[in-house]
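A further point concerns the way the authors explain their paired sequence and structure data. The central task, working out the structure tokens from the amino acid sequence alone, is never made concrete. I therefore recommend that a typical entry be quoted early in the introduction. An entry of this sort, consisting of the sequence and the corresponding backbone structure tokens, reads as follows:
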Amino acid sequence: MLLAMTSTRIVRLAAAAALALGLAQTAPAGPPEDVLRAEILPGWKTPEGTYMAGLKLRLAPGWKTYWRAPGDAGVPPRFDWSGSGNMAGVRVHWPVPRVFTSNGLRTIGYEREVVLPLELTPREPGQPVELRARVELGVCQDICLPMELRLTGMLPAEGGAEAIRAALDARPLTAREAKVGAVRCTVEPIRDGLRLTAEIEVAALGAGETVVFELPDPSIWVSEADMARQGGRLVAQADLVPASGTPFALDRSELRITLLGERRAVDIRGCAGR
């Protein structure tokens, strides 16, 4: 196997961007490396011929970064793998995040430390992959700092398997694993888009139940879901507003619904009409 040759460079994109949080804007002491440290964890070759690796993020006390759907006040992470060699695609696996509330605003993400498993598909199976990535993240405490990570590495390599496997085990349950029953959606047009109501047959997830809707098109704004529990059924409603500000056709099979709670989380793909 090839030995790992990984490196990370962190660039601060803006000195102290408050990002509309309306909070104190005192810049943190020290360089950006004091706020966020990142490294690539090499993993293993899977039976399917992909390579499993991990992006480990370690945050300074009190700081957090964001999940793929960060909430209205969060900063969505962005990945650019185009500089990589022998790379056909990358799938990021997301461990269960936490829900944070500050000044009445909800964000979803991670604090202290997180490993994001990366599943790399080589263009030429069996040949090494040269990983070159640019990752844009928001890290926040009382202020938010946009940061850019430059990652390089050669895979396959050895090491990091235990942390990567633990992060994979920390992913939300599938609908089948969580024994989710019927998932039905109704859609109605509103002035500037659609109103989506989902009825989900699922056992209680514990305190702080949260429902997050995601669409394949990131340009469509999705509001924070209003929720109500009716026994073994969870009802959630959100508005979907495209850039055009008009109603649009929604493919229910492409809707992703994540349920977050104190005891567990569930990842649901698609829903049926009523």
Summary: The chain has a mean pLDDT of 87. The radius of gyration is 20 Å. The CA atoms of residues 50 and 245 lie 41 Å apart.
